[in-house]
Amino acid sequence: MMKIVGGHYLKVTLKPILDGICDSSKSCEIDPIKLKEGDNVENNKENLRYYVDKLFNTIVKSSMSCPTVMCDIFYSLRQMATQRFPNDPHVQYSAVSSFVFLRFFAVAVVSPHTFHLRPHHPDAQTIRTLTLISKTIQTLGSWGSLSKSKSSFKETFMCEFFKMFQEEGYIIAVKKFLDEISSTETKESSGTSEPVHLKEGEMYKRAQGRTRIGKKNFKKRWFCLTSRELTYHKQPGSCVYALLWGFSWFSVKVSLPLIVTLVNPFSNITVVYGFSH
Fold this sequence. Notes:
Blueprint: H1 2-5, H2 7-23, H3 41-60, H4 68-84, H5 91-110, H6 124-140, H7 143-147, H8 156-162, H9 168-181, E1 197-206, E2 218-226, E3 230-233, E4 240-245, E5 251-255, E6 259-264, E7 269-274
Antiparallel strand pairs: 1-2, 2-3, 3-4, 5-6, 6-7
Domain Ras-GAP: 1-142
Keywords: GTPase activation
Protein name: cDNA FLJ60904, highly similar to Ras GTPase-activating protein 2
């Protein structure tokens, strides 16, 4: 669910930084066994810390971009954790952090192509860099690891690296972020919230009114599907050509792999679109 509802949130939060990391050739290897000839482990630590800090600071400042649907879920999760464990104030935070950091941000960082944040599978060195960043971000976001001044790393080199982040400032930043995304006070209710960005991509649109089948009948267009409407554009970022679902289309069916069926009962027209991966 978070992958679909939070897709746009990930894109605006992580993609610019992940693009820079994937396009860079900086080494971030800090495992002594895996160091290449000529590598300087101290320089690599600085590279890795720079990327971790950049991603972490962006994430903890992104609460206003978090979809309202996710905030509502985090709020309910936090309330249930508080009721179930009233004597442990840490549980309400770890319950939320385990979802938003462990199952959302950390996974997107280590595998950006599966979240449509990168067009292709990264090379081996980049995968290793993203893995180290993801491990650190995941542990930084873990309320238990920060509040109890211990980490869950099994590797000695990761334990040593994580000591750089065991400062009060990181604990405060994580707590503030978790408070903001699990509060109902900072956002309006889901019924009036911003539309959820579900999918976008290229599809071929068949021209209406043509009876003969041919190349001219089909045009490649960029479609964007949200929880409120389906629109298409000539290309990404260009003006909207048409609003297909919103006011004139009244019956909508979405199935996976993503096929959108639109039915207009007044004109007895059915249009079917299919997104490619």
